[in-house]
Amino acid sequence: MTETVETDAGPARITWHPAKRPRLVLAASHGAGGGIEARDLKALAAALPEHGVSVALVEQPWRVAGKKLAPAPKTLDTGWRGVWPALAAPGLPVVSGGRSAGARVACRTAAELGAHAVLALGFPLHPPGKPEKSRADELLGAGVPTLVVQGGNDPFGRPEEFPEAPAGAYDLIEVPYADHGFAVPKRAEISQEEALELITAGVLKWTGSLGGTPGNDRRTAAVVRCIRC
Predict the structure, then answer these.
(1) Cβ within 8 Å of residue 159, ≥6 positions away
(2) Beta bridge partners of 97
(3) Which long-range contacts (CB under 8 A, 24 or more apart) does 212-215 make?
(4) H-type alpha helices, the chain
(5) How far apart, in whole angstroms, are the C-alpha atoms of residue 93 and residue 145?
(6) Could you say which DSSP state residue 120 is in?
(7) What digits encode the pLDDT tens for the residues 42-71?
(8) Is the C-alpha dihedral spanning 222, 80, 60, 199 positive or negative?
(9) Do residues 9 and 71 lie in contact, with contact meaning Cβ atoms separated by under 8 Å?
């Protein structure tokens, strides 16, 4: 269930994981070093549709084109703006999300695009070893309910490094022992499966608090019928 969307940064691609009676759409993009096959994105795409959340995994134009290096942030934002009409087409509230660089894009564009909320997976608070180069302003400037899911050993920003913020600015879930990609070492007190369950359970609880009216996603249903033909 994929569609190609033309943007000013080139063709992007959306892979839909539809809920039968969706009340929200979670749109999530990848980071600068990987694609939508990331373990956290796959886990959410598998878990959320059963609970009324359609998941749309977005591949940025540079990834669709087969390039190995991500472009400048403003180009990433351009690509995300270009796919937004397709994400909003089902007529449901859209949670803007992503992992790493994709999380930054979601935060930077949330207010202008009218996102219902933001999901930031592995938000890169700073480059590894350079805490003075903080990107906290992007996170705090999202302007909508925001959930950060962060590995306890993420070199791009451990949970305790995140700034205090006014109540309601954002919530944070820590995944103990996990790195930037939410991988946990074999010696950890939790397994890789348990780490992913922490992510999916936390996001499910959070999306449940966001509201949204169940309905028939006519656009997604049409895509399903077309593929089954």
Answers:
(1) 150, 152, 172, 174
(2) 28, 119
(3) 212/23, 212/24, 212/52, 212/92, 212/93, 212/116, 213/23, 214/21, 214/22, 214/23, 214/52, 215/21, 215/22, 215/23, 215/91, 215/92
(4) 39-47, 61-64, 73-88, 101-113, 136-140, 192-208, 218-228
(5) 13
(6) E
(7) 999 999 999 999 999 999 999 999 999 999
(8) negative
(9) yes
Tokens of 138: 């992007």
Helix (H, G, I), strand (E, B) or coil at 37: coil
Q: Give dist(CA 30, CA 138) in Å, integer.
A: 17
Query: How do residues 209-226 score in pLDDT, each as one tens digit?
Result: 997 655 433 333 322 222
What number is the average pLDDT over the span 132-148? 96
CA R_g for the chain: 17
Beta carbons of 120 and 98 less than 8 angstroms apart: yes
Phi/psi at 183 (5° precision):
-80, 140
Q: How is residue 51 written in tokens? A: 């609970």
Question: Do 100 and 32 meet the contact criterion of CB atoms below 8 Å apart?
Answer: yes
